[in-house]
Write a structure and sequence with these properties.
Number of domains of chain B: 2
CATH topology of the largest domain in chain B: Rossmann fold
Largest interface: A-B, 34 and 55 residues
Number of domains of chain A: 1
Strand order of the largest sheet of chain B: 6-7-8-3-9-10
Strand content of chain B: 25-35%
CATH class of chain A: Mainly Alpha
Radius of gyration of chain B: 20 Å
Number of strands of chain B: 13
CATH superfamily of chain A: ABC transporter involved in vitamin B12 uptake, BtuC
Structural class of chain B: alpha/beta
CATH architecture of chain A: Orthogonal Bundle
Largest sheet of chain B: 6 strands, mixed
Strand order of the largest sheet of chain A: 1-2
Oligomer: heterodimer
């Protein structure tokens, strides 16, 4: 064949450099936002001092404990959770061939909420002890997390079993996810109906996703799973491109589509389950961040997956920062802010159309 | 011989779709799979690159049984263009570059880019490089899909109804380009088709499927009016216009198209065997 005689396509390479620049720009903004996020809150810390503290050159000891014990784990948790939910979302949209798919399409968030409700109401792991905001105490956060995670996994396994029976048909998986969501929602309502006021408050509070719940050990666990998931999806970017071109095209390109779908669902479900059971339900990020990136740099997975990771981290970190400022000194759970922040940007992007 | 099929049998949920299929194909040949709707043309095509796994029988590619090859190795030998191609927000170049998937390790290399660049020139679609494929016409999209299968550098190209959704100009352009690359690169093409006239013009050999198995397999000489009537159940005439053979269904040739013709007795001998009329 004389095919290798082609030229290097400078026009195409120039076009891809712009996408790379977008992603690199996002990483720079993310870093700046991290500094700002750490510096603001009930106590303001000058950004310069934040930076010096982070690189180990702290000027004064007084900020040290706030930064290392409270603000940094919270900000990094927001980055990890945003990245994890967003990468799970972009993968689910490909796997299920549906723009409305998100990490929660499989019914995972409702399963997690049901698990938390079981823990709080049946096992008595938490109750609200005063009416001041933020005073809901989960007596036994680990048991709550473990039970929530167990129910997330239960939902995942049910979906995978259904997918196996129906040969990974995307429609069946989506509809089964809707059915499971409804089932768990009904379960939560059933339990809430018999709960007392303090338990009810604890369950509702749990479902408001909040990145402030995590300390360093939780962060490391979430970050490990998120990084592993990101590496998995980036490594499979070509296979996801192939799957986007249609199942038959993908098979013709040597991609085992069923196996790719099932493995992708397992990875996405795992990362979502871990994040949901530690942090509660944080919606919108996983659904909308991939679409924001699609609008700017298109559907090519080589750029879409890393772009979504950065965008998810950015949106959740920005939301968390604003959540700490908006009704200071109270701190809102980030889940309330993600949609407030993301929806207007997303609607603007929808109206603007595609970037060319 | 690049591809051979022996005693292939395919069941779909215990219903027999294909049975006792056997044929072989050489490099530089275009083979058309013909037959009525639902007879299993697409199924047969998919059995040739293991998108579907036959119940029995052996498909051999370049001397190796298909079942012994890894999926990626199959994709390096056989390219496949389905009837339906999904679009998305990516450029023509991205879409064709995807065809290098079976050759890509962690990432693409300069060689991959050069090959894709050459394919755009070869298929004369350079103007589509940076066009988004979700804004392309059916004909443009089909060329992109064929170019994608071509950069797999396969020895066999399987095309499922490559022209069924296209207008006359696009049909001719696409099949001309396929003919060129078959001649130039000595690859084999197997395509399913509905249009007998197009098949007659571009294919070297023909497989007629009927009742789950091969009714006839051979070169142009096997296409007779009797054969076509036996397979499709429609009486036809085969004539020749300016040296080009053409198949005309009988019920349509008097222009009103609503009944089988009975009046023009002088045309009926053409149904017998291979009688040709020449219009000048």
């Amino acid at each position: 064949m004389h095919l290798a005689d082609g030229e290097l396509p400078q026009d195409y390479l120039g076009y891809t450099y712009r996408k790379v620049l977008f992603i690199l720009g996002g990483i720079v903004v993310l870093f700046l936002l991290l500094i700002i996020s750490i510096s603001v809150g009930a106590v303001s810390i000058p950004p310069y001092e934040v930076f010096m503290t982070l690189i180990g050159q702290n000027l004064t000891d007084k900020w040290d404990r706030i930064i290392w014990n409270i603000r940094l784990p919270q900000a990094l948790t927001a980055i990890a959770a945003g990245a994890g939910l967003s990468v799970a979302g972009v993968a689910m949209q490909s796997i299920l061939r549906n723009p409305l798919a998100s990490p929660f399409t499989l019914g995972i968030s409702n399963a997690g909420a049901f698990g938390a409700a079981v823990a709080v109401i049946i096992f008595g792991t938490g109750r609200m002890t005063s009416t001041t905001a933020g005073a809901v105490v989960i007596n036994n956060p680990y048991l709550t997390t473990i039970i929530a995670f167990a129910f997330c996994m239960l939902a995942t396994m049910a979906i995978l079993a259904i997918a196996k029976i129906k040969a990974s048909s995307p429609e069946v998986v989506i509809l089964a996810g809707v059915a499971l969501s409804s089932l768990f929602t009904a379960g939560v309502m059933f339990l809430q109906y018999f709960a007392d006021d303090t338990q009810l408050a604890a369950v509702v509070h749990w479902t408001f996703g909040d990145v402030g719940r995590a300390g360093w050990p939780e962060f490391f666990l979430m970050a490990t799973i998120t990084i592993a998931a990101c590496i998995y999806f980036i490594a499979n970017r070509w296979n996801y491109n192939a799957m986007d071109a249609g199942d038959e095209t993908a098979r013709g390109l040597g991609v085992n589509v069923e196996r790719l779908r099932n493995a992708g669902m397992i990875v996405a479900a795992l990362v979502t389950s871990v994040l949901v059971s530690f942090l509660g339900v944080i919606g919108f990020v996983g659904l909308v961040c991939p679409h924001m990136v699609r609008r700017v740099i298109g559907d090519e997975q080589r750029y879409l997956i890393p772009g979504s990771i950065v965008m998810g981290a950015l949106l959740l970190l920005a939301s968390d920062t604003v959540a700490r400022l908006i009704v200071a000194p109270y701190v809102l759970p980030v889940a309330i802010l993600t949609a407030f922040m993301g929806a207007p940007i997303f609607i603007y992007l929808l109206l603007r159309g595609y970037h060319r | 011989m690049i591809l051979s099929v022996d005693e292939l049998k395919f069941l779909y949920r215990n219903t027999k779709v294909l049975d006792d299929i056997a044929f072989s194909i050489s490099e530089g040949e275009i083979v058309a799979i013909l037959g009525p709707n639902g007879v299993g043309k697409t199924t047969l095509l998919k059995c040739l690159n293991r998108i579907l796994v036959p119940k029995e029988g052996v498909v051999t590619v370049g001397g190796d049984p298909l079942g012994s090859l890894e999926l990626m190795e199959v994709a390096r030998r056989i390219g496949y263009v389905p009837q339906r191609v999904e679009t998305g927000r990516l450029t023509g170049f991205d879409a064709v570059l995807l065809g290098r998937r079976p050759h890509i390790g962690w990432d693409i290399t300069e060689k991959d880019l050069r090959i894709v660049d050459a394919a755009f020139k070869k298929f004369m679609i350079d103007h589509l490089r940076l066009h988004s494929i979700d804004e392309m016409s059916g004909g443009e999209l089909q060329l992109i899909a064929i170019a994608r299968a071509f950069v797999q550098e396969p020895r066999i190209l399987l095309l499922d109804e490559p022209t069924s959704a296209l207008d006359l100009k696009n049909q001719v352009e696409i099949l001309d380009r396929i003919r060129n690359i078959v001649t130039e690169h000595q690859i084999a093409v197997v395509m399913t088709m509905h249009d007998l006239n197009t098949a007659l013009r571009y294919a070297d050999r023909f497989i007629f499927l009927k009742d789950h198995s091969i009714h006839t397999y051979g070169d142009r000489n096997v296409i007779t009016a009797d054969e076509i009537e036996a397979v499709y159940g429609v009486p036809v005439m085969i004539g020749e216009l300016w040296g080009v053979p053409c198949v005309i269904p009988e019920c349509l040739c008097n222009g009103n198209g609503n009944s089988k013709r009975e009046d023009n007795q002088e045309l009926s001998p053409m149904r017998k065997g291979r009688a040709y009329v020449r219009y000048t």
